[in-house]
């Protein structure tokens, strides 16, 4: 994907075209992937940020074909805000995940959420939206965010079907950030296992290249998270530790700009361990729970 340029449509298969938004960063890789699904009438999955250049690139790619639905996997600001100007330009309905209801208690990690997201139709697990020769079925995959949905493509031939638009739950370049209080490591692991039980042929993620062997990647992702959990437990068995101390020992050599995300991920693991009775928090220090 290194040759992909923002705003230039790329046909991945007959019913799937992708556009790269111009929002590259340490957290978005080369940028957010917007997908156009269908041939005669269309859906747009994750129109990305509210960026006039990117919205115009989507409109140019649509041409004269009608847009039936603007489909949203989750409400981070690099995925959903573009839905509003795209709806104004086309009249298409916004469908997909629920708005994210957040309280104000405690340390928040919601600075990147799109608080103005207002779908016309909320899709629950198993609900579908479709057009001529295509259908997108919602698969609830909480974890990265509590409202995250993936979408399975069907409505074509058996050879054409089997693609999954995996949003940020499974990406083609990195594991997802799981940031409490909305991100939940237990939910994230259960969602990975839910996808592993499926038989999709390819994933089209919100960031990074298509995933041609989803089951292999999922095995690796689940194994990676279990390894991180094991690292945390080993460090805590040595002595009680703070989260920054654990991150410094676990994430050697990563881009320092990613340290805050790493700290949130370690916190998500610790909260999950606490819920399972394996760790306990005392002030800013975490301790392992003695099984004896």
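Sequence proposed for the structure above (292 residues):
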């Amino acid at each position: 994907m290194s040759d992909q340029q923002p705003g230039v449509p790329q046909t991945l298969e007959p019913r799937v075209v992708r556009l790269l938004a111009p929002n590259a960063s340490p957290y978005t890789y080369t940028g957010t992937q917007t997908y156009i699904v269908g041939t005669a009438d269309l859906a747009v999955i994750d129109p990305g940020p509210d960026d006039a250049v990117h919205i115009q690139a989507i409109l140019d790619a649509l041409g004269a074909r009608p847009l039936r639905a603007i489909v949203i996997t989750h409400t981070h600001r690099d995925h959903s805000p573009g839905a509003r100007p795209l709806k104004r330009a086309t009249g298409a309905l916004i469908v997909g995940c629920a708005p994210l209801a957040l309280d104000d208690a405690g340390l928040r990690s919601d600075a990147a959420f799109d608080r103005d997201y207002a779908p016309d139709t909320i899709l629950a697990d198993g609900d579908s939206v479709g057009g001529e020769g295509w259908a997108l079925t919602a698969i609830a995959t909480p974890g990265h965010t509590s409202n995250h949905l993936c979408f399975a493509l069907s409505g074509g031939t058996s050879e054409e079907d089997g693609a999954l638009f995996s949003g940020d739950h499974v990406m083609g370049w990195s594991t997802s950030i799981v940031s409490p209080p909305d991100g939940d490591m237990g939910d994230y692991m259960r969602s990975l296992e839910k996808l592993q039980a499926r038989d999709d042929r390819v994933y089209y993620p919100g960031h990074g290249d298509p995933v041609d062997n989803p089951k292999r990647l999922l095995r690796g992702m689940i194994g990676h998270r279990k390894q991180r959990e094991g690292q945390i437990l080993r460090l805590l068995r040595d002595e009680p530790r703070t989260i920054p101390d654990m991150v410094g020992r676990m994430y050697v050599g990563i881009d320092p700009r990613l340290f805050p995300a790493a700290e949130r991920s370690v916190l998500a693991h610790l909260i999950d361990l606490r819920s399972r009775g394996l760790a306990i928090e005392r002030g800013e220090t975490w301790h392992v729970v003695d099984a004896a």
